[in-house]
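Lecture 7 notes. Example A: sequence first, then its C-alpha cells.
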Amino acid sequence: MDAARLDGELARGLRPVYVILGEEPLQALEAGDAVRAAARASGFAARTVLDLSAAGDWNAFEAAIRDRSLFAERGLIDLRLPSGKPGKAGAEHLKRYAERPAPDLVLLLQLPRPDKDMRRAAWFKAMERAASVVHARPVPPARLGAWIRERLSRAGMTIRDDALALLSARVEGNLLAARQEVEKLTLAGVTEVDVETLQQGLADMARFDLFELPSTALSGQTARALRMLRGMLAEGQPEPLILWALSRDIRALAQAAQRRAAGEAPANVVKGFWGTDAGALRKALDRVDAPAALVLLARAAQVDRVIKGRETGNAGRQLLDLVAALSGRPLEGMESEFA
C-alpha cells in the first residue's frame, strides 16, 4: 500500500509485522514514525533498534525476540536493513520469523526500494505474506502541488496558486525540503502564503544542501562540512532532519566497516547503501574502523536524545561535534580554524 493509506490501516489495529520500502526518504521516515507511535499507544512500549547487513550478527535479532518473551514485555523491534540483502543467515531468520511472528512483538522492517532479486527472495515473499507492506514512493511531479497544499492546510494555512507554483519549483520534488518550508511558515505565524512571503523566507536550497552535508563530512572536508552545518542551523533547518541525514550515512559507514572487517571483497564493501555517496564512503573507511564507526553511531544516538529532550545538552553544538568527528577531526580546541 501507499504511505498515505498507513494511518487508516493503523487505526484499524496493529499488525504483527510492518515492512517499509523506503524509496522516498520523508515518506519512509514518517511511515516509520507512524508505526512506532501506534505501537506505543497500544502498549508496545519497549523498543529495540537493530541495524543489520549480510555480514551482521543476526543472533542479535534472535536475542531481541527472546529478551522480550523472557521478561513478558510487549515491544517493537525496529530492524533496519539498508542494503536490502540480509545474507543467508539473515534470510533464514527473517523467513522463520515471518512464518511465526511473536505475539508480544511488533516487527518494523525498513528496507530500500526493492529490486528484482529482493522481490524473488523467499524471505521477502514470506514477509509480504505476514506484513503490512508500505511502499514509500516519491510524489509524482503532477501531484506535488496538491501534496504541499494539503500539508499547509493541515498546519492551518492557505496558499495562492502562484505561490504554490513557486514553492513547488523551488523544492524540486524534495519532500524533506518541502516539509522544512511548511515548518518555517508555521513558526512564522503565517496563515495565507503568497509570493511575497515566500520570496522573503525561502531558504536557498542550493546553498546548504541537506544531503550534501553527510558526504562532505565522510570525505574528510571538515571546514566545509562545518560551514554547511552552521549555515543550515542559522537558516532554521530542523535539527531532527539534519541528524536523520547524518545518521543514515553513519549507519552505512558502520555496516561497511563491519563488512570490511569480515573480509568481504573491497568492491562489495560500499555497495547497496541507497542515498550514500560510495566515493565518500571509501574515503571515510580509510580512517574509520568498525569500533570507531560504532562510537559515531553512539554519538548520533546521544544527539537524538538531546534533540528529543531526554538528555540535557546543546543540540546544535553536539551536531557540530558529530560532523567534525565524522570528518576525522575533533572540534574541541579547533573552533577558530573551522569558523
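Example B, a different protein, same format:
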Amino acid sequence: MEKPPTIKDVASLAKVHAATASRALNPQTRGKVSTRTANRVLEAAKSLGYAPNSAARMLRTKTSSVAGVIIPDLKNPVFPPIVRGIEDGLREAGYMALMGNTDGDAEREHELLLAMRGRQTDGFILATGRRDDPSPADHVPTVLVNRRTDSGDIPSVTNDNNAGVHSAVGLLASLGHTRIGHVAGPRELSTGWERYRAFVDAMAAHNLDVDPARITFSTAFTEEAGYIAAMRLQLDVTAIIAGNDLIALGCYSALEERGLSCPRDVSVVGFNDMPFADRQRPGLTTVRIPHYEMGFEAARLLLERIANPATPAKRVILPVELVRRGSVAPFRQAT
C-alpha cells in the first residue's frame, strides 16, 4: 500500500523548509510567509494529494480548522447555495464546515451551539441571527449571514434590502399601481424589519399612501405563514411586495382562494430569487440576492475574525438586482 504524502514531501516539491510548508498550509499562520511561497506550497500539496493530520494540528495549534454553520430552515431553498459558498470559502483555507439546522427553534439552536463548541469549533457562521441577539458570551469568533443584529456588534454579511425593496416599489409605481400591499417577514428578524421599513420609505418617496390595513406581518419566512398573512390583507390592493419568495408563493395561494388572478388582478413581487422562482406559474418577479457570494464572503469574514479576534465588527452589504417575470402587469382598472 502506497504511503500517504507527508509535510516533508510537500516541502521538498515546493523547495521550502518543512516548517515553512507547515506555516503556509495552516490558515492561522499563512500570513507569515509570502503569497508566492504560500501558493507554491498549496499547489504542491494539491498535486501530491496531501491531507493535513487535523488531530496533530489541533494538538499543536489548539485549533480544529472546523467552523460551525447553523441555518434556520433546511427546506428553504435560499440556503443551499449560501452554504455552498460558505463551504468553498472555508475549504480554500483548509477549513471544513460542521452543519446544523434549527427549524427556527431557539432552544435547538442553543443545543447546537453547545454541542459544536464541545467539538472545539474555531468559530461560527449563523444564518439564525435575531435583531436583539447579544454578542457571544465566550467571545468565540462569529459571523452572521443574511441577517444582522440591531446593535451591529457581530460581524455580518447581508444584502441591500433597502435598494431591493425600493426597486420593487419603483417598478410597481411605474406600472400605475398605487394601492400596494406588503406581506412582511417576521419583525424580530432584520430581513423582515429592514424590508418593511424600506417599503414604507419607498412608498413615501413615490408619494403613495401607506395604509396599515395593506400591511401584514408573517410569523415565519414560509409559504404557509405567507398565505395566512396574505389572507389578512385589505382586499383593495392591486399589487403585493412579499418579504421573501416563499411568502410570495403563499400570496399566490391566498389570491387564488379569493378568486383573484396574478397578475391580472394583483401583481406580486418576492425577494431572494430562490432556485426555481422562474418556474412558478406565473414566473415570480423578485429581487435577486447573490446567494453563493454571500456565503463565500461570510466564510472570508469568519477566517479574518479567527485570525484577528479583536478587530471591530464589519458589516458587509452586497448588491441586489430586480428580476422581472410574469407575476407583474400594468394596473388594470376594475370593470
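Note on Example B: The first strand starts at residue 66 and ends at 71. The CA atoms of residues 21 and 265 lie 65 Å apart.
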